[in-house]
Amino acid sequence: RELPLADKSLLVSQAYVAGQWIDAPEGKTFDVTDPFDGSCLARLPDLGPETVRHAIDVAHEVQRDWAGKTAKERSVVLRRWYDLIMANVDDLALILTSEQGKPLAEARGEIVSNAAYIEWFAEEAKRVNGDVIPGATPQQRILVLKQPVGVCAAITPWNFPNGMITRKAGPALAAGCTMILKPASQTPLSALALAVLAERAGVPKGAFSVVTGAAKPIGEEFCRNPKIAKITFTGSTGVGRWLMREAADGIKRLSLELGGNAPFIVFDDADLDAAVEGAMISKFRNAGQTCVCANRIYVQESVAEAFSAKMVAKVAEIRLGRGTEAGTQQGPLIDEKAVAKMEEHVADALAKGGTILAGGNRSSLGGNFFEPTVMTGITQAMKVAREETFAPLAPIISFKDEADVIAMANDSEFGLASYFYAKDMARVVRVAEALEAGMVGVNTGMLANEMAPFGGVKQSGLGREGSKYGIEGFLETKYVCLAGL
Length: 485
Ligand code: ADP
Prior knowledge:
The protein has helices at 49-68, 71-87, 89-100, 104-124, 163-175, 188-201, 215-224, 237-246, 272-284, 301-315, 336-351, 383-386, 402-410, 425-434, and strands at residues 15-17, 20-22, 29-33, 40-45, 131-134, 141-148, 151-155, 178-182, 208-210, 228-234, 253-257, 262-266, 294-300, 355-358, 373-376, 393-399, 414-415, 417-421, 439-442, 457-458, 461-462, 475-482. The protein is an alpha/beta fold. Helix 2 (71-87) runs antiparallel to helix 4 and helix 4 runs parallel beside helix 5 (163-175). Belongs to the aldehyde dehydrogenase family.
């Protein structure tokens, strides 16, 4: 299908390997479709491990040169990449919405807020400082160097097809690493468009490759190839676990942004309208398909009914439709599997005593659309409380007191984002410290930005993206003992 892009060269049907745009060497391809209607947007090469190996070989060759440039030189290239993304944001948003389904305004928001990671790390490139430490004897000095880890492999998901790339490639390239990226097969077109702009910005040939194709063989090559120093992954905990196991033999560095099961807690002293607004953004943005989504909404007993009523009123206003249509607030889910999971979670909650206050069914729009749904009478035993639903389902669980809700919130193997609304200062500090999560939003439903460390604890992952901490995963610390002085 043709997309009305201002710059048609941003929609490509080739992979970007070692600085070359290539078709499938063996002629194998796969289709990228629009989740709105299943129409085919592009046919892309399904690359085998040999081609991936070639990309890795070249990334390994050029890495020394890239690391050998001054930080300022790398910074200038990254800054140019950022500028080009911002200049092409409308086209990038249209490509993103077409392959992913989210409303155009959200696609733009994703691109702008995540391009900021490239801008940020272009600046941080110049601030990768080591240390000079007094030596153990007067004749010694201890020098601490920060050096790039080397060639990095990145694997990114379909829910943020653009943003999950820039927050990995930005710090990697800033640090002097090179990168091979495997985007999700549902949404590789955003990745390839970013590669077009990276090439234009002057990222050297081979320093950033985008390989498309089946996840498993490419993942295996990443895990087994000795030239890959580090794997950075955003996706499900199951795949993260698999990568960790596969990469164990090579003791590869890992950054993992995995699943979440975010609690969203509303205390009785909260500003209820603000809490509802925060819950709406946190829950229904991207049709509930974000890893930091509110998955379990805990509301203190005395305000639970009022909160639910306000939430139901807001949910009634959500307009479903095609992402490219003006006024659309919720697009289709990514695929049938996602719809089936939502259905399963609703049915499980109903069977165990839950009640539907709004939605609960597939939408009359058909396809992958599901009604935004609010349920009450939810307990910890239900799937909605235990697993990441990744869909527009808001399950409301009422609680008695602080101790009660903290125990429930922490009763999960996940620990990515958490949120709570409260005014009492002592409570704010107590609860923020007690929640087992990498991120806590206090009186807000939105957390991520390039200045803050994004990441999880427990089985939600390893490492942080964004902020001064975000580049550390791409650096090694080397100690040089200068003796005989
Ligand atoms: P989801 O279930 O949300 O699609 P996944 O974790 O399955 O999340 O997918 C996230 C990314 O991981 C995608 O790019 C997908 O292609 C990739 N992926 C899935 N399985 C593997 C695997 N065995 N090895 C490497 N990458 C994988």
